[in-house]
Amino acid sequence: MDTITPFRPGDEVADDAELLELAHFLAGGVHPRRRTLTVTWLDADDRLLGLALPIDDVPRRPDPAALVGLGTVLRGVVDDEAPGGSAVVVLERPGDATLTADDRAWNRDLREQADAQGVRLRGFFVAAGGQVRPLALDDA
Among 46, 102, 103, 116, which is 20 to 30 Å from 140 by CA? Predict the structure, then answer.
């Protein structure tokens, strides 16, 4: 098993490889036992804020009202702590690593909510079945 170097507040996440490494770090073990959405933020210079928000027991499909609340949180942290910054989200779930329609719905709906709030979603990842996989906008 590869060891993931810990990230610290102020560390730069300069490229997609480092972004994937950050997602691995946030996911911890990639064999989750429950559904968790973990959000972290980067400042305008792509430096880690050091703030992570785990949301446990998220539903299989995103709930529209909960998404609005999450969008408000995304915007609030960017406004208060990281003007011009972005968010990174990891959906951890039990099961194999095959991307599902539910994973794609989370990616699509969360990206739409972030966009509606004026927040750049720097990355969306799914951690399952021993893997962490990125989903792009066109994976929605």
Answer: 46
Query: pLDDT at position 140, please?
Result: 54
Q: Which own/partner pairs from 70-73 qualify as long-range (CB within 8 Å, at least 24 positions apart)?
A: 70/37, 70/39, 70/110, 70/113, 71/113, 71/114, 71/116, 71/117, 71/119, 72/117, 73/39
Torsion of CA 104, 13, 67, 139, to 10 degrees: -20
Whether the full predicted model's pTM is greater than 0.85, yes or no, is yes
Q: How many Å apart are CA 140 and CA 131, to the nearest integer?
A: 19
The Cα 44–Cα 30 span in angstroms is 29
**Residue 36 has what pLDDT?**
94
Token pair listed for 2: 């590869």
CATH (residue range 30-139): 3.40.140.10
Task: Give the list of residues 6+ apart from residue 23 with CB closer than 8 angstroms, or none.
Answer: 88, 90, 123, 125, 127, 132, 134
Q: Does the structure show a pLDDT above 80 at 102?
A: yes
Residue bearing the bigger pLDDT, 41 or 31: 41
pLDDT of residue 1: 42
